[in-house]
Write a structure and sequence with these properties.
Blueprint (H helix, E strand, L loop, with lengths): L2 E6 L4 H11 L4 E6 L11 H19 L3 E4 L2 H14 L4 E3 L4 H7 L4 E6 L1 H5 L1 H10 L4 E6 L2 H10 L6 H8 L8 E4 L8 H8 L4 E3 L2 H12 L12 E4 L7 H9 L5 E3 L6
Parallel strand pairs: 1-2, 1-3, 2-9, 3-4, 5-6, 5-7, 7-8, 9-10
InterPro entries: Asp/Glu/hydantoin_racemase (IPR015942), Asp/Glu_race (IPR001920), Asp/Glu_racemase_AS_1 (IPR018187), Asp/Glu_racemase_AS_2 (IPR033134), Glu_race (IPR004391)
Keywords: Cell shape, Cell wall biogenesis/degradation, Isomerase, Peptidoglycan synthesis
Pathway: Cell wall biogenesis; peptidoglycan biosynthesis
Length: 262
C-alpha cells in the first residue's frame, strides 16, 4: 500500500489531492495544512522552510510516507531543494501551468491568476520567459481569491460579482487563464462564470497527478480500505464546517498537529 503526503499552508492543496485520488484511489493519503502560519506568501523564507521541513518530516516518519507533494506554489519555489536533500523519498512540487496555457492560447494573450507573492517571484518570470516568450502575459495577484476558496469549503457561497470585479481588467483581452495557486481550482467554476466570455482555464493538478503516478506506479483495485487522514496546525475551533467538505472528499476529520514554537 503506497502512502502519499500532500502539504499546503491551507486547503488549496485539496484540489491537488482530488486529482491524485481520482487517478490513484487505492493509495492512502495524508493531507496536512499549516493554517497557523497561513498564508505562506507573507512568511520570511527561513521561517517557511523551517515550518515545512518540521511538519513534513514528522508526518513522513509517523505514517511511513512513500512520496510527498508540496501543493503550494510559494513553498515549492522555496523549500524543494532543502526538503529533497533532507528526505530519501520523492518530493513533488507545483508550478503555475504557464506552458500549457501558452500552448492553447489562440491569440497568445494569457492571464496569470495567483497570489501576490507568486506573480512577482523571479521563478515565475523564468517560467514566462521559458514557456510563454511568444505571449503577452497579464498578471493579477489576489489574496482575496484564496480567502474565497477557504470560505467555500466552509460552506459560504462565493460572490460572483466580487470575482467579476477582480477579473474585470482581463475582459476581452486574455483567452487563457492560469490558476497559479492551488486554492483557485476549488472555485474554478465560479471563476468561469464571473469571467463571462469563453476562456481556457488551466491548472497543474492533472500534471501533478500524472507525475505521482509515474513515480509510484499505477493504482490497483478500488478505493483503499485505509483511512485518509487530515492534519492542521491551528486550533480546531474553526474546522467543523470544513470537516463536512473533507468527508465528501473521502478524508477523515481534522486532527491537530501543533508546531512546537507556537
Amino acid at each position: 500500500m503506497k502512502r502519499v503526503l500532500i502539504f499546503d499552508s491551507g486547503v488549496g492543496g485539496l484540489s491537488v489531492y482530488q486529482e491524485i485520488y481520482t487517478q490513484l484511489p487505492s493509495f492512502q493519503y495524508v493531507y496536512a495544512f499549516d493554517d497557523a502560519a497561513f498564508p505562506y506568501g507573507e512568511l520570511p523564507e527561513d521561517v517557511l522552510i523551517e515550518r515545512t521541513q518540521y511538519i513534513v518530516s514528522l508526518l513522513v516518519d509517523r505514517h511511513s510516507i512513500d512520496l510527498v507533494v508540496i501543493a503550494c506554489n510559494t513553498a515549492s519555489t522555496i523549500v524543494l531543494p532543502s526538503l529533497r536533500q533532507q528526505l530519501s523519498i520523492p518530493v513533488v512540487g507545483v508550478v503555475p501551468a504557464i506552458k500549457p496555457a501558452a500552448m492553447i492560447s489562440e491569440r497568445k494573450v494569457i492571464g496569470l491568476l495567483a497570489t501576490p507573492a507568486t506573480v512577482k517571484r523571479d521563478y515565475t518570470n523564468r517560467l514566462v520567459a521559458q514557456f510563454a516568450s511568444d505571449c503577452e502575459v497579464f498578471r493579477i495577484g489576489s489574496t482575496r481569491l484564496v480567502e474565497m476558496a477557504e470560505e467555500k469549503l466552509r460552506g459560504r457561497a462565493v460572490s460572483i460579482p466580487e470575482l467579476a470585479e477582480i477579473l474585470h481588467p482581463w475582459r476581452n483581452q486574455v483567452d487563457s487563464i492560469v490558476l497559479g495557486c492551488t486554492h483557485f481550482p476549488l472555485i474554478k467554476q465560479e471563476i468561469a462564470i464571473a469571467f463571462g466570455s469563453p476562456v481556457h482555464i488551466v491548472d497543474s493538478g492533472i500534471a501533478i497527478a500524472n507525475r505521482v503516478k509515474a513515480l509510484l506506479g499505477d493504482s490497483e483495485g478500488g478505493a483503499s480500505s485505509l483511512l485518509n487522514l487530515t492534519y492542521n496546525s491551528a486550533a480546531n475551533n474553526h474546522v467543523a464546517a470544513l470537516n463536512h467538505s473533507l468527508r465528501e472528499m473521502q478524508l477523515e476529520a481534522i486532527q491537530s498537529l501543533r508546531y512546537p514554537k507556537l
